[in-house]
Amino acid sequence: MQPQNQDNTLAAIKAETLIESLPWLQKFHGKTVVVKFGGNAMVDAELQKAFAEDMAYLRWIGIKPVVVHGGGPQISARLAELGIESEFKDGLRVTTPEIIDVVRDVLRNQISTELAELIEAAGAGASIMSGEDANLFRAEVVGDAGLVGEVTQVNPRIVFDALDAGKIPVISTVAPDANGQLLNVNADLAASALAVALGAEKLLVLTDVPGLYSDWPNRDSLVSEITAAELDELLPRLESGMIPKMQACLHAVRGGVPQAHVIDGRTPHSILLEIFTRTGFGTMVLPE
Q1: What is the model's pTM?
Q2: H or E segment at 121?
């Protein structure tokens, strides 16, 4: 049993934390927040559970989270099981008609389903959808990696309907082109396009690093806040894996989203830490 004074101290800390969150509860109540789920948070069971709890918590306090996810490691694992080699060009998975079927199945029937189940276990409803549902996303081919695309159009009605029904949309990023051919779409950029279309208050992109470094690998160069103009200048010098995440943030704030963030998904409940603390968490991108 803990001493009484220690119990009182812990209770006081909890109360202070709750009070500190009050201005942010007021600011974000009723607002939409788009979260790109990825990295270690997708493959670590405890981090998955913590993420689902964060999403349920946000929904119950009146914030409307929308989850967008990819699934690179899981797709690679499934392809290996099937004896299909994974090939990449300029960081893009070379996607054949055979592979796009695997991508679609893994994203929707494995990752989306498991995440929706965790969200529901945490006490909130979830609605599974992808870019091909109700014309949510339209895409066109980019690069020379086969059936790999970029979102060119968003029809967010299905997402608004789910939010109005009290559900948390869980969205995978395959999308048809103008001819109905399904394409494998970058989840970071799809989340950004959706955040703009929804008029979201924030875009949050989970990564496997503490945030943006202006001079990687110098760990003293972690950036807590950066404007779109400053990010534009820095972008060509970033590591290749960080570029689509920062492009997503840039597109979001230039499209009208007030704030975009990259945060460390390896820290349990990093979403709540970012939204509800004075210091925030990770790197915040602001408009010009």
Answers
A1: 0.93
A2: helix 113-121
